[in-house]
Write a structure and sequence with these properties.
mainly beta; single chain; 23-stranded antiparallel sheet; globular; 6% helix
Length: 534
Amino acid sequence: MKLRYIASYALLTLIVAVACGMAVGQASELLQGKVTLVTPETVYFNAGTAVGVAAGDSLAVVRESDTIAIVVVTHVASHSAAGTIAAMAMEPLAGDLIILKPFQAVTKPGTAGAGPATESVARKRTRPIEQNHVKGSISIQNQWHHDMSGSGLDWARPSLKTRLTVSNIGGSELAFELRHRTRLYYRSEPVGIDQDNHEWVNQVYEFSIGQEDKEASLEWAAGRITPPYVRGVGMIDGGYMAWRVHPNYRIGLAAGTSPDYRTTDLDFDRRKVGIFGSFESGSYQDQRIGLSLALSTAYEGTTVSRDYIYMQGTYAKAGLVSLYQSVEVDLNRAWRHDRTGERFTFSNYYGTANLTINKALAVFFSYDARKNLLYYETRNVPDSLFDDNTHKGFKAGFNLRLSNRVSVRGHGGIRYREAPSDDNRLGFLSVRLNRFPAKRHSVSAQLSVVETQFTTGYRPVLLYRFPLTRKLTINATGAGYIYKTGSTSTSNYYLNLNGMYNLGRRYYFTGGIRQYFDSELKSFELVTELGVRL
């Protein structure tokens, strides 16, 4: 790989970052919400349309005055919302602050200029209603890997990531949604047969137009979408419609073709259709209940690949307790019945409970019984690959705040297999010292352990978080992977530095470097991202 290419890209990124920083002013007074729940795919928080949050908004997650992540809002209700992580320096946790848009005090009608007495009226966020309003985020990223083991397999992966919402198109109350990523893989040497050194990969995850008013009697969207009320359908090239038959009830349908799950290319041979109903009541600020039920069918050509019922339920009460569960039941007919010998199969179940005992202690418990799903295209795969390879097991953990400066997190779990001796066990423990050795500094020591029938693995981590400038906090991590298989032991160690810098309220820059020290993986990596919140 040419050094000139790497240097030019790094210089361009630096120039753009400096230019953006010079162009941005300071933020005004901010309204804050709190993260209520974090799942592997979604961040939930306790603010919604009542304070002006809208789908497509890019919001900052803050911990101890430092921005640790950027969340793009995907679904919003009156007093709650959910989004996906667009950029992250540290993983968000329940209780972190989420910064909403600027808000300002308003007075009662007829009291303008009446003086301080009228300013006690509750503050309200103002959002101008405008046509063709653009929200979301755009970022350029690059990951550069320099091999130092002697194999010479260097590579770079520059990319462009967009997440845009254009609201109230032409005054029609319609919204356009786009989620997209374009990457260029640049390799010093091909690693596969007939593989080029350069390879463009374009992936579109959402490209749709639809009704953006979630309170309307009819809600719809068409294009490449993920229907919001029937998650079991997944991503489709098609559309959905949801009728609000009652303030708390919706019914609807979704139909379309299923994109290739590896490339997101169109695939008209794989189709999905589903009907659904949902119930939502309350808010995360008080008490909220959400239920959904869907019946879905997936086709491979003209053959039914899978029939299944999907059920999901959530419950949350004033930040004290939150419950979530999802269930999938396969309805086996034709070739599926011949293969399984059963009419019904519980193919997936996942449930989790989070409970806040007091200000110092929170606990959680989860049960996972998800399986590898059987489709028509995998009908000839041996049974053992489906029956033996399940995720069935329990996990429980805690978050203990011993004082304002010391906190402890931990969890443990077990995944069951056919024989007790084959069960997989895992554990994690973390001790964090806040404001140590100085203000805005923190030190964390972590240890993860996993034990399978073949291997025992350990991952020790030492993390030191410190402010480099007022707006830039650095995470310095020293970690290792240690595996023991029989009498053989393998170890890999690395040092990682990363951070996020906010250039005003709209622009952000994240970067990181990682150096591996062992002979097997000895390499150097540089990751950069420059983004703008629209």
